[in-house]
Sequence to fold (223 residues):
Amino acid sequence: MRLLPLPLALTARLSPVAVLATAGWALSSGPLAPAPAAGHEPVQNKTATQSATAPSATTESKTYATAPAPCDSIGTKTITALVPGAKTGGKEIPSTDAKLRRTCSWNALKGYDYRWLDVSFEVMGSGEQAQKSYQERTTEKSGGGAVPGLGDEAYSVVNLTTEDKQQTREGEVIARADNALVVVTYNGSDFETKKAPSTDEINKGAIKAAKEAMAALKGGQAG
Fold:
């Protein structure tokens, strides 16, 4: 960030302070300072050495450097169970930055039953940024609840929508591990009965996929 020049009034106020500080240095540490007693090191030099070698307190956490391959993050058996009839290899969605954001999608219609599964990874600059994004997203999606034992924190929500008398139930799981997010979307419809799968079926399916995706993230290359 570019620093702006100080206002003239503030500069004028600071000038006498700078002069006094310079004078104090000359008397205590500069050419006018008395020589230190033998065997004693000047305190200010020791402090400067410690400051130079001490680790920075502002260093941000960043465990993950890249997003894993999303289409390899879910097991074949899980894909077959959650999305019957889908190609288990999935289809990766184009990304503007594949190093940081990657998504794979599976969908299929078997008989009259339709299922769709999306798995996404998002790698951010720090754990603080990922936590902020997690909080914003979970706040927007009310009505859900925490998922224990999934990453550092995780949230699951299921919603039912109806269009032209056709029901669709969709579940979403948002999970965070340090500076990375795992987002799973899973939905389904029955085009014969026009009903949607149960909340329990969709919620459990989304959580199962999220757990496998989280395992793939943690098992991948760490930064």
